[in-house]
Amino acid sequence: MRYLRGKVLAMVLAGAAAGPAMAGQTSASVEWLLPTAKTHAVQTHAQDEAGKQSGRPLPTPEFLQPTLDAALPSFKPSHDAGLKGSISMAASDTLPGLVGAWIHAFHKFYPDVRISFGPPYEGSHGAMELANGKIDIAFVSRELKPTDITAFGARHGYPPLSVPVSGGSYRQFGFLDAVVFFVNPQNPVERLSLAQLDAVLSRSLLRGKHAAVTWGDLGAGGAWAARPIHVYAIKPWNGFEEFVRQRVLDVGAQRGHWRTDLHYDPTVFPIARRVAADPDGIGYAGLAFVDAPVKMLAIGSDGHYLAPTYANVASAAYPLSRLIYANVNLKPSTAMTPPMREFLRFVLSRQGQQIVLDQAVFLPLRGFQAESAGALLGAPAHGDRS
């Protein structure tokens, strides 16, 4: 069996239940091994259509599972069980099972809240229906497309509100796997900061560094110092590409822009193989798409670097861990309807995240993530006791 090798200076967590505050920097290198993923085929049109009607078939559950974070709040209803109202929802094709389980559990608290949820299951469709005012919540297993946000803003005069409701998966194909950067195994570089990655990828350079065009610009010495950096990236627009742009190239409200001299592929599928074949290569992909022997990089900032181990991703300490979002239409300075706010409060609670854990595909939010997401829900409506 082939393995991905990553000898990195990393912050090692005590376990998957640990949070960022528990991390401590090691004094020695840590070598870890990860089997290469199988090479996956692009989903066919027939599979796409079947997913829109029934949802994508769930993968084999992860063997490893984190402990549910004790800091997650327990759900306590803010209204009596007679709360009435309605919520309409849509979701990506990876999410019908999870959203359906949330709905079933929520009805035990509020049996008189009517919830409509059904096919088609497709993220862009949900975003369009949200913009058109036909649904209240669009669950999407990626960041919204810039065109989705623009279309919504043109209609409403403000952007949609995106509330994190779950982590992504670790390395499940098609289920929002964590994003990793990697180099050829011959390359001496073992870790890069977000600012260094921005210098490699961006023409905007919002993180303040000069463009990096040789490996010496990234700290490599000797014969490597003058060698050119060959970047293998994904052509916009793409879910992986948008995620990397937001986490690496963007700073605050400023949107970063890719360099024009990168080697672009239309999809993520060939990136790892290209880097494995090019000693000067660097690329990024979801963990499920790393199907060739490459060296994984630790990523960080302020001198702290984290490898994409299961514990680091499950604890949300790794900076390129992903999130699933509930996108809603909430005009600034207004309150959500009580049924919608109660539903999202439930999803962000210990009970809601236990459902994520029970499905064993996606990773539940950590307490600090749920707290930040809960703050996005805004003030309760008049009469809400929460």
From TrEMBL:
Keywords: Signal. Pfam families: PBP_like_2. Residues 41-62 are annotated as: Disordered. It comes from the Bacteria. Transmembrane segments: none annotated. The keyword Oxidoreductase does not apply. Residues 79-350 form the PBP domain. InterPro entries: PBP_domain, Phosphate_ABC_transporter. Residues 1-23 form the signal peptide. Gene3D superfamilies: Periplasmic binding protein-like II. PANTHER family: PERIPLASMIC PHOSPHATE BINDING COMPONENT OF PHOSPHATE ABC TRANSPORTER, PHOSPHATE-BINDING PROTEIN PSTS. This is PstS family phosphate ABC transporter substrate-binding protein. The lineage of its organism: Bacteria, Pseudomonadati, Pseudomonadota, Gammaproteobacteria, Lysobacterales.
